[in-house]
Amino acid sequence: MGISLYIILAGAVGIVLGAILAGLFIKNNSKKIETEAKEKAKSIVREAEITAEGIKKDKILEAKEKYLRLKSDFEEEVGKKKNILITNENKLKQREQLLSKEMEQLKRKEAELDSKKENLSAQLHVVQVKKEELDKVTQQRITDLEKVALLTREEAREQLIEMLKDEATTRASSHIKDILDQAKLSATKQAKKIVLDTIQRTATEHAIENCVSVFNIESDDVKGKIIGREGRNIRALEAATGVEIVVDDTPEAIIISGFDPIRREVARLALHRLVQDGRIHPARIEEVVAKTEKNIDEEIIEIGERTCIDLGIHGLHPELIKMVGRLRFRSSYGQNLLQHSREVAKLCATMAAEMGFNAKLAKRAGLLHDIGKVYPEEAELPHAILGMELAKKYKEHPEVINAIGAHHDEIEMTSMLSPIVQACDAISGSRPGARREIMDSYIKRLKDLEDLALSFDGVNKCFAMQAGRELRVLVDADNVDDTTAGKLSFDISQKIEKEMQYPGQIKITVIREMRAVNYAK
Q: Which spans are transmembrane here (predicted)?
């Protein structure tokens, strides 16, 4: 037991001594580390101070360099401005010297003028004195003459005037008669010369419009696609365009027949697109025809603009430009209206220039003289009056307005351009081969035939075909049933018999097509 206690005590003493020794060791190390840290910190501070001092010196040097550079730039700028000021100052001095010289010259001239003015005043005074003396002498002589002739001055003047008046009237009458005789002899000759020169200087091609267009195809296999199963494609095309499609034995050609040039052109372009696309069926035909009609409207505007540019006519209202384009697809007595109007415009310009009038205004009147024929709405006015109203509506020149309205003598001519337009219209229309009167009457008869059918209720569209021997009437399926369609065909035939004159017979076909359309969503 005693030994164990001793051992325990000895162990405790050893632990205490170890702890004391460990504490002393740690303390000595801590002091050493602290000392090293302080020395390191001092070293870092010294390095930082040295680095800061170097940076400071660099910044100071950089600032000094910048200052010197700015100072140099400033001094250079100041030097330039100073030179400019010196230059301006020298110019001002030179101008002052010039002004001083000019002022001296002006003063000398002013002195010279004053001297001349004094001389003139003296001369005027002398003249005034002499005039007074002359008036006195003249009055004395008049008084002496009145005593001798026993007439006053007024009476003598009246007698002299009457004698001179009679003599002047006689001579003037003789001269007027000679001038009129000479004018009558030369007027006709000069007028013929102007007209002939105008015609010779205007070269225009003449192409009489017809009612048939030929559509060329690459092979006869395409004809079957155009006709379609049981003819449904060709019927759809005829119904959409209002023309007759003739597919016969003519190799590689299809004939498009119709009196309206716009319809024929729409049908031709639609056929061209359908053949190129290869998809030919009723729905596609209607879609292509609708797009083609829109393209034709755009082409009409383009034709009008191109015509105005070619003729050098500017400032025309957009609606008038569109009507000029529509002239391309209309004809008068078989003569294309746009070709006719262009020719009349050129003839008017040439004739007006020969006669010394405004050639540009005459050309404008010549181009617009027939725009009443292409007015899109039905009107009961003559085309000349209608064209005049349109020109007045779109603020055309008064002389142009009168020339349009008077070129067929519907109104009185108040401008010298009016007889020029009338004469040039006659020149263009009377050229050999320029017109064909049968064509115009034929087209009018077909138009009247269509208008007659359109006057019935329920009729949507109407197309005259086969040179007027067939009338196809498209009706609204919702408003016209099968029984009414038959009655409508009979009523139209009776009205045609009563109101129209025509050779042979006319076939009236009423087409009622029922379509049911739904959409799957």
A: 6-26
Pair of tokens at residue 293: 């009609």
d(CA 260, CA 237): 15
C-alpha 210: how far from its chain's center? Answer: 32
What are the pLDDT digits (tens) for 502-513? 666 788 888 887
Spatial separation of the C-alpha atoms in residues 484 and 285, rounded to whole Å: 28
Question: Is 396 in contact with 368 (CB distance < 8 Å)?
Answer: yes
Q: Does residue 360 surpass a pLDDT of 50? A: yes
Q: pTM score, two decimals?
A: 0.46
Q: Which helix (H) or strand (E) holds 257?
A: strand 253-257
Quote the Cα angle for 381-377-315, to 5°: 90
Which two structure tokens, joined as six digits, stand for 329? Answer: 């697809």
- Per DSSP, the three-state class of 314 is coil
Instruction: Using alpha carbons, list the distances in angstroms from residue 362 to 123, 234, 342, 485.
Output: 60, 48, 12, 54
The contacts of residue 83 (CB under 8 Å, 6+ apart) are none
238 token code pair: 């005829």
pLDDT in the model for residue 208? 43
Nearest to residue 319, comparing CAs of 379, 380, 397, 391?
Answer: 391
CB 352 within 8 A of CB 377: no
The identity of residue 368, as a single letter, is L
Phi, psi of 508 (to 5 degrees): -105, 115
Q: How many CB atoms lie within 10 A of CB 477?
A: 16
DSSP 8-class letter at 466: G
- Map 486-503 to HEC letters: HHHHHHHHHHHHHHCCCC
β-bridge pairing 335-336 and 244-246: unpaired
Backbone φ/ψ region at 214: left (φ over 0), alpha (ψ -120 to 50), beta: beta
Max mean pLDDT among 274-283, 372-381, 440-449, 455-464 falls in 455-464
Burial class for 448, CB neighbours closer than 10 Å (0-12, 13-18, 19+): middle
Alpha carbon distance 440, 430 (integer Å): 15
> Does residue 256 contact residue 250 with C-beta atoms inside 8 Å?
no
Tell me which of 93-107, 130-144, 337-351, 470-484 is least confident: 130-144
In sequence order, what E strands does 311-379 have? 331-332, 335-336
Cα–Cα dist 57/388, whole Å: 95
- Of residues 267, 425, 104, the one with CA closest to residue 96: 104
pLDDT at 459: 87
CA distances, 192 to each of 29, 195, 198, 428 (Å): 139, 5, 10, 16
Name the burial class of residue 321, with classes exposed (0-12), middle (13-18) and buried (19+) by CB atoms within 10 angstroms of its CB. buried
d(CA 165, CA 159): 10
Say what angle helices 359-368 and 417-429 make with each other, to 10 degrees: 50
| Digit-coded pLDDT (tens) for 78-97 | 888 888 989 888 888 888 88
Q: Identify the three-state secondary structure at position 267.
A: helix
